Each structure stands twice: as C-alpha cells, then as structure tokens.
Amino acid sequence: MTPLDTVPPWPARWLHSLIVHGYPRSVRTRFGREMRQLFFDSYREFRRSPRVHTSTRFYARAFWDLAVNAVNAWLDSMRSAKATRTRKTFKHHNAQHRVTEQLGTLHNAVRYALRVVSKTPGFTFVVLLTLGLGIGTSTAIYSVVDGVLLAALPYPNADRLVVARERSPLPEGRPGWVSPLTFRDWQERTELFEDLVAWRLYLVTMTGGDSPERLQGHVVSVGYFRMMGGGMTLGRGFTADEDRVGGEKVVVISHGLWQRRFASDSTVIGTSMILDGVPHTIVGVAGKHIDYPEGGELWAPIALDYEREFRSFRYLGVLGRLADDVTLADAGADLERVAREIATEFPQSNGGWSAAIEPLQSQVVGNARPVLVGLMVAAAMLLLIAVGNVTNLFIARTVGRHTEVAVRRALGASRASLIHLFVAEALVLSILGGAVGVAAATWGTRILQVTARGRLPRVQEIGVDGHVLTFAVVVSLLVGIVVGVIPAFAAGRTRKGDAFRFDHRSAIGQKRANRLREVVLTVQVALAITLLVGASLLVESLRNLTRVDPGFSSDDVITMELDLPNSTYDSGRQIAFFNEVLNKIGAVPGVEAVGTIHPMPMVLGSTTIPFTISPAVGSAEAVMPAAHVRVVGPGYFETMRIPLLTGRYLESGDRDDTQPVAVISQTFADRFLGNVNPLGHRVSTDPEAEEESWFTIVGVVGDVKFRSLKDDGEPEVYTSVLQTSYGHTRLVVRTRGAPTQITPQVANIIHGLDPDLPVADVRTVEAIVTERLGPARLNTALVSVFATTAAFLALVGVLGVLTILVGRRMREIGIRVALGAQRQRVLRFVVILGLRPVVAGLLLGIVVSLGLTRLLASQLYGVSALDPWAYVVPSLAFLLTAGTVCRWPARRASRVDPASVLREE
Amino acid sequence: MTSNDLNSSPLPLNPRVFTILLALADGSAHGYQIKKAVEERSGGTIRLDAGSLYRSIAKLADEGLIAESGERPDPTMDDTRRRYYCLTEPGRGVLAAEARRLAHLVEFARSRNLIEEPKAAR
Q1: pLDDT score recorded for residue B84
Q2: Average pLDDT over residues A109-122
Q3: pLDDT tens per residue, range A657-692
Q4: Measured between CB atoms, which of A70, A80, A225 is closest to B122?
Q5: What CA–CA distance (Å, rounded) separates A444 from A379?
C-alpha cells in the first residue's frame, strides 16, 4: 500500500472540513482536529479491509453522521446557552459566550435576509421555483439511489453475502448457474465461506382452496434461512434430515403468502398444503424481509440427489456467506482454485470452466447501477443549471444594490460582514427552496415508485427518509453558499468612496459582474448541451430497440402458463393432454394457430446444455457444442411466425412412437455445423445413449431473441413436447382480432379437461416484449425530461443575461443610433453579444459530452456514444432557439429612441 | 429545570453513553480506541462516527463523568494529535450504578424464564 492511500482523497477531506466548519465554534476548536484524525483512522481501517463495503457507503455513513450531529451540536449549544442564562450563572465558559454572540450575528443576518426576501416577492418566487425544481429533482433521484444502490440489503451483515457462479469458457460465457456436483465440491473444498447454499426456481400448483393457484417459490438447501439471518415470523427453517432425497415433504411460506392465503393465522404451523397434488407440512413462515431470489412465495428443501446428476448439467443458484475476516478477493481466488482442481479432474465437463463471486448487493442491483449513476449525474447537472440562473439573478441584484452596499461600507461595515449578509440571504432562500424541493421530491418519489415497479430492483425501499432529508439539507446549504458567495465577490469590491458616485454604470463591480455572468452562462449552456446529447443518444438507442426484430411476430398472440403436476400426470398422460388441448383450442373460431413452449422467450431464463453431434463435424472439435433446449408443442413456430430456413417444422405427427426429431436455430447450425447440411445429423445430451434415443435434425429456423432485445441469437435446440414430455409450459395462441377475447374460451377448455389446473399469468406476447423495454423507456423518459428542463432553464438564463446587458448598454446603443447606426446592425450586434457565451458553452458542452457519454455506452444499443448526429442536432437546435430568444432584447434595443436615452443623462 | 439536565438524575443511561463509559473502564483511551471498543462490544449495533462520538464526549466531559487524561500510555506509541480520556470518580460511580441497575433487570428477566439458551433449530 502506498503512503498516499492512507489519507482520504481530497474531495472527501475538503467536504469533511467543510462540515466540521458548520459546527459551533466551541465544539470545533475543542474537537475539530480529533474529528479529522478519527475520520483518517476510520478511512485507513476501511482501506485495510475493503471486504464488500463500497466506498460510497463508507463516505455516506461518515458524512451523514457528521452533518446530523452538526445540527444537533447547534441545538445543544443553544440549549446550554439558554440554561446558562436562566440559571443566572456568571461563571460561564468563554466558548459558550462566543456561541451566544455568534448566534446573535446569525440571528441579525437571518432577520435582515427575511426582510429582504419578503420585500421582493417576485424575485423570491422565481428563485424558489428554480431552486425547488433543481433541488427537488436531485433529491428525488437521490432517494432512488439511496434506496436501491446505497442502503444495505435487509439481512444481518448483508455485506458478507455473495453470489457464486460457474463461468463458461465459451465466447458468450458469462457467470451462470452451477452444477450440483460442483456445488458439493465447493462446499467440501473451500473454507473461506461460513456457509454455501443452493437454490433453484420452484413452480407449483396449490390446490385444496376455492380454485387452484400457481405459486412461484424456490427450493433451497439446508442453511438458507440461517444465512438470511433467521428472523422467521413463525416456526423454523429446514433441517438436514428434511433436505435429503425421500425426506419429509415440508414447506416454508413467505410472509406475504401467509397474509394473503392464510389470513395471518398463527396456528398455520403444522397444517398441510397440497402442492402439485402432494400434501406438504408447513413448518415455518419466513420473516417479512426475506425476499431473495426476488418474488418467491414459498420455499421447500432442494433434496439434491447427487447420484443422478451430471457435472455438465448446471442449473443451481449458489449463495454464500463469507467467513469472518475473509475478503471478497480471497474468497473469489479460493473458489477459482477449487474450480481449477475440478477442471483438471473432470476435463470433459469442466475443462476451461472457472468460478466467480459477486457481492449479493451488486447482483441484486445489477444493471440498475449505471442507469442510476447516469440519472444522478443528469440531476446534478440540472441542479447546477438552476443554481446558475439563481446566481445570475443574485449578481444582477447585487449590482443593483451597489449604492446600499457602498453606504454600508462607508458606515464601517467590514467586507466580511457584508459577505455574511449576502450569504445569509442566499441561505434563507436556498433553505426555503430546499423545502419546496423536498415537497416536490416526496411527490416525485411516489410517482417514481409506481412507474419504476418491475423496472428497477428494490423499488419498495425508495422513499424520502432521514438520509434523503440530510442530502436535501446539505445540498441546500451548499447551494446557498455558492449562490451567496459568487455575487459577494462583485459587491465586496466596492470601495468606501463609491457611495458618492451615483453614476453606478461606471462602478468597478460592473465589468467584473458582466464577466462573471457570462462565465456562469457558458457553464450552464455546456451542461444543457451535455444533457441534450445524452438524451438524444438514449432516444436513438430506444428507437433502435423498438425496431429490433425479435425473430418472432408478437402481435395478436396471447400466452398463459400451464402446469401438469408430475404426481398426477405421467409422461403418457401429459402427451395425451397436450394433444387434446392443442386440438381443441385450434378448433375454436378465431384461433389461427396454437402451440406451447418452455422456456418462453423473454419470460424465463435458461441455461445451455452440452451436446454431442453425430456424425461429428470438424468445427465442433474446437468448442464443445452447447445449446438451450426448448420443448415446444407442434404449431409453436407457426403461432410465433418464426421463419423456417430449411427442412420442416415439428409436427403433430412426431409422436413418442416415431423417430425423435429436433429443429435447430440458425446460430446452432452456423456455429456447430458450419457449411455442412444440418438435416439428418443427430444430437444427444448423452453421448452414451442408445442410437434410437438420439434426436434427428429435421429443420432449421430463424434465430429468436430469447433473453432480451439487445442479445444476439444463441444456439437453440427445439424438441417436441409430444416426444419429450415436460409438464410445465406456456400456451401460445394466435388469433384473428383481439387476442384477449379468446382467454375465457381457452380457460374453459383447460378446466373442462382438468378442473384442478390453474391458468396463470395470462399476457399478450406484445406486452411481454414491451415490458422488456420498460427500464430503457423509464431511463430515456427521465433523462429527456431533465434535458428539456435544462435547455429551458439555460435559455431563460440567456434571455436574462442579455436583457441585463442590453439594459446597461442602452446609452451606448442610443448614441450609436443617434450617430447613424442602422437598426439592422444594432440588432445583429445585440444578438451576437448574446450568442457569444452560448457558442462558448456549446463548444465546451460538446467537449464535456465526448468525455461523459462514455458512461452511457453500456446503455446504448445500435448507436455509438460518439454518434455525430447526436451531437450536431441538439447543438444546432439549441443555437437556433437561443438566436431566436436573443432577438427579443435585440429588437427592443434596435427600437431605442436615442433622444429619450440621451435625455436621461 | 430542563429535561436533559443529566446531573440531577443520570440513570438510566442511554445505551450509547453506557458503552462509551464501559470502554473507558479499563483505563484511558483516545477517540478512535473508544469507537472501536464501543462497536466491538455492542456487536456492531452501536456505530460511532466522528460527529456522534465527539458530541457524546463533549456532553460527558461537561457533565463531569469523563475527563481528559494526563497520563499517556506508551510514549513510543503516543501521537500528540490525539487526546486521551478517562473516567472521573463520579463517572465510575454512575457506570457502576447503571451496571447494577441493568444486572437487577436481567436477574428479574431470568427469574421469569425469559432468558434461556437458544434452541438449536434449523
């Protein structure tokens, strides 16, 4: 570790001293140095054991504590000052005396500020509105960032929880599911985890109530509830005896299910519920906070049967808790060591495979992180633009109050006390603006919570709480200081004799104020351009996404979940059922085609399974072929209109007594069969299997976007549900006309065949595809709104600054006109005057965008972060609008009557 | 009389104050040592950062329960930037009184069978 690492970086040190400066002087002089020392010590400890802590959380915690206690310390000192007075003790501390004195000045300044504020209602209104907008937006976005990114997950020592995965050597290999045998090896061979547990999705039908219900839960290995910190509402978790093949059928229900289906009945423990036709004893009700993996309503023991598993069959999620004093890096390295051992021992199934761990928090937050960070940056820019406008208003007013300032100076006010006065005034306004902002944010957060549901993780944790309020207070104070100090520079320059120079146009502050205004405006325009560029990139990316061909046609197709429990449906009955249900639905008038599929595109994830191809093809040697397996009912491809490239689709004639057949996707053919005609080749997951159980490839279909619209096609193998029966599936029905109208008839047919089968999750395929775009839409909409508001505020800034400039130079313009200047030239002169900072800001903005849009790159689809159009179009549009805006004051200037201006002299 | 006038009736102590005093029971310590001791002893449930720690220290010093310590532990380990704090006589008395009060409460709870060994479930 370098010595540089042992002190916090300068912005943190600076912010720390700034907050310490906010403490009452008595506290500051007594403890200021020690507070700094403690901060350094804590930082050093944090750096020594980074574990899974993020630095954001370290700083948030330290600064929050510091800021909150600054407010408390003031309250303390006021109380003790009061107590001292009432006790009429003469023996008080010098420090306390100073506090009262300081409070006196503060009190005066605030009283003065309130008086000024109330006397200029128009000014106050505009300032509060602008600041409320800026602070409100940042506060609302911060509340999302705080709830989703910063707040710890609701489990004890949640920062020790990690997700462990196997990582495939394939090119698109991202860390994914884990094979049970690998999971067992991990448990046995690494010591750096306190515990490792496995889970997988568990979809069941609950019967016995009024109507059958589909439930989604998870099967988990023993230790899961201990890992989540216990905290059962009722009962217990699972025992090792229950988590064993042939163990007792037990289940733990979620707090939500307990309330919903069992009316929070406290005697539910020990009773039984029928899941997939089998009675299960309820042994526990989970704590309300336990919600990982998200959205589960019940848990059952996973009871892995290691005898029947293959190493290449990977389908488990694995959750681990790091042992005490073990860092994330150490645990990750140790798991990789074990993965390498396994790879050497089982090269066939694990050659090239490695392992990866990731903090649970970052896995839960996932893709939301770059989006939220981008939004926070956008909101901060909007806030800065708002602050710019208010600063320019303050500069203008300070210059206008030139005489008052000069008189105060002449009467003996020190420069510092004047600056105090200005800052106090700005602080009063910024705190009021902050209050408006918090009100707006509370309202905005509620709207965000509704619109972001299902598009962001942990939405339920978003809200205006202590952290968010502290954020708003700190931001308001900083804004007040900035807005107060900048104009004070102009005013502080006033000399004592200036009071008697009533011609304030020649005042010394004037030129300086103008330059300051232009600088502020340039920065504002630059920020607005950056936001506009970002927004246009996102809009373009969203447009590309909506135009993406998913490989199937989504309109007029409705889909619903169907689940045949294994306990009542053996594979023969399943096939018979699917045959009948597909025939009956196909005969309904208005139905064009019907099929089934599992797993459904964009609804369920899946994992690749290794294949052997026979006869072997040269290119297959390089990488072991692996593909996603989809079990479809005949009619699926027709229903989804997935194009047939060669051969034939799966048909209703493909039965369990005919040759097993498969259809493959184009990517499968290209990647594993190269230029060979794929038809007639056979594939199998088990190279040892008997000849007749291999699947013969009879067709190649187009690629389908299974995971999301952004992904490329992947190798897929489709087999028929009539040959490889699988009880859990989704029906897809294409209709002529509105697809939802057909739902009751379809449900009737299913219930006619088996009244115990629930028809769940009825949705149109179009809705499923649209839902996939939800996060991108939300993000794009927010950034666009920010960018438009920013552009509007910046244009208001342009107008304001130019109006002031023209007002100040009216005399000069009048003289020019009197001397024969053409009105057209005056017009042009003023427009150019106004556009000068705009053009400077534009150029600066483009440079800033070139650097910042790189942050967006991960969120863009089909458009480069450096796409020239995204830069040119908003810049030109802004320039043109600014030009139009500049014409208003310009026209006023060109119509000036030279006589009246000169008469004013 | 203000409600926060601790001198008149110091008990019961705020748990944070109690743990800080407890941290000083073994001898003098500087701010960071107090922070570490408190966090360790409370099992991480009480967190002290600069603001809350020094506000508590200020209060306790003003109430005369702790004082700045003249003694410095090991001159080689000493850091002149740090100030050491120790319990005063009244401070030790208050700490002992609070400990006794808590012990009584725990005794009572135990007599009502509220405290038992945790079951080995799950």
Answers
A1: 87
A2: 77
A3: 888 999 999 988 888 888 788 898 888 877 777 877
A4: A225
A5: 13
Q: What is the pLDDT of residues B70-112, one digit of tens each?
A: 766 555 555 666 788 999 998 999 999 999 999 999 888 888 8
Question: Phi/psi of residue B75, each to 5°?
Answer: -60, -30
Token pair 């001791």: residue:
B37
Give dist(CA A387, CA A134) in Å, integer. Answer: 8
- Enter the ipTM: 0.80
Angle at B15 between CA A228 and CA A87, to 5 degrees: 150
Indicate the helix (H) or strand (E) that contains A300: strand A298-301
* Span A415-426, average pLDDT: 77
Q: Shortest CB distance from A27 goes to which of B5, B53, B58?
A: B58
Å between B55 CA and nearest CA of chain A: 7
Task: For residue A40, give the nearest of A19, A18, A16 by alpha carbon.
Answer: A16
pLDDT surpasses 70 at B4: no
Phi and psi, residue A231, nearest 5°: 65, 45
Q: Is the pLDDT of residue A504 over 60?
A: no
**Residue closest to A163 by CA, chosen among A174, A172, A173:** A174
- Restricting to B residues 85-104, those with a Cβ less than 8 Å away from any Cβ of A are none
Rounded distance, CA A575 to CA A225, Å? Answer: 38
A41–B57: do the CB atoms touch at under 8 Å?
Answer: no
Q: Which residues contact A300 (CB under 8 A, 6 or more apart)?
A: A202, A217, A219, A220, A249, A250, A251, A252, A275, A280
**Which percentage of chain B shows pLDDT scores above 90?**
9
* Token pair belonging to A752: 């006619």
| B55–A27 C-beta distance less than 8 A | yes
Q: Within an 8 Å CB–CB cutoff, is residue A8 touching chain B? A: no
Nearest by Cα to A716 from A625, A780, A592: A625
Q: What is the pLDDT of residues A725-741, one digit of tens each?
A: 777 889 999 998 888 88
Distance, CA of A331 to CA of A321 (rounded, Å): 10
Tell me if B2 and A62 make a contact (CB, 8 A cut-off): no
| Mean pLDDT value across chain A | 83
Q: Is A33 on the interface with B (CB under 8 A)?
A: yes
Residue of A35, A76, A223 lying closest to B50 (CB–CB): A35
For A23, phi then psi, to 5°, come to: -75, 155
Q: What is the pLDDT of residues A442-486, one digit of tens each?
A: 988 888 888 887 777 887 778 888 888 888 988 998 998 888 888
A240: distance to nearest CA of chain B, Å?
A: 8
CA pair distance A868, A878, nearest whole angstrom: 16
pLDDT of residue A540: 92
Question: What span, in angstroms and rounded, lies between the C-alpha atoms of A454 and A774?
Answer: 8
CA atoms of A123 and A130, how far apart (whole Å): 11
CA distance to A62, A287, B38, B39, B47, per residue, from B43 (Å): 19, 22, 8, 6, 10
Q: Å from B105 to nearest chain A CA? A: 25
pLDDT 10s digits, A202-248:
888 888 777 788 888 999 999 899 888 878 888 998 999 999 988 89
A572, A607, A606, A608: which is closest to A721 by C-alpha? A572
Residues of chain B with C-beta less than 8 angstroms from the C-beta of A239: 122
A45: left (phi over 0), alpha (psi -120 to 50) or beta: alpha
Quote the pLDDT of residue B77: 54
Q: Which helix (H) or strand (E) holds A408?
A: helix A402-410
Weakest mean pLDDT among A305-319, A464-478, A609-623: A609-623
Is residue B84 within 8 Å of B29, Cβ to Cβ? yes
How distant is the alpha carbon of residue A338 from its chain centre?
34
| CA B12 to chain CA mean position, Å | 13
